[in-house]
Design a protein that fits this description.
This protein is 26% helix and 20% strand. With 116 residues, it is of the alpha+beta class. The chain has a three-stranded mixed β-sheet with strand order 1-2-3, covered by helices on one side. The protein is globular, with a radius of gyration of 14 Å.
């Protein structure tokens, strides 16, 4: 089972992207109504958990990051929050690097992660 399926119950949607182009609807036509990067969904739509979903998609797309079923991904605004347990510091470092590469992520909080 992949990250996206385990954490959000989602199969990878067709055309899902880690860093999609925002889809601006007719209701959102002014510059002040653009979708903030942390709320951008997998297909460019508004999604309150968009950053966390796009980070999990990035984890799924990285062949070095098998699903670690003892780790969860959340977000607080533009901060990616990792919670749980990872097998090694190297895996955690890779996850931090991948999460930081996702548009909208300003930092990665690993204070709730244990290694072992």
């Amino acid at each position: 089972m992949g990250w996206l399926k385990r954490l959000f119950g989602l199969e990878k949607p067709e055309n899902a992207q880690v860093n999609p182009t925002p889809q601006i609807s007719q209701a959102r036509t002014t510059a002040t109504e653009k979708i903030p990067p942390e709320a951008l969904g997998l297909n460019g739509e508004y999604d309150q958990s968009g950053l966390a979903k796009r980070v999990t998609l990035a984890f799924d797309e990285d062949p070095q990051l098998d699903d670690v079923n003892t780790l969860w991904v959340a977000q607080t605004g533009s901060i990616v929050v990792l919670k749980g347990k990872v097998p090694s510091q190297n895996i955690l470092n890779k996850m931090i690097s991948v999460a930081n590469s996702v548009n909208g992520a300003t930092s990665v909080d690993t204070t709730q992660v244990t290694i072992g």
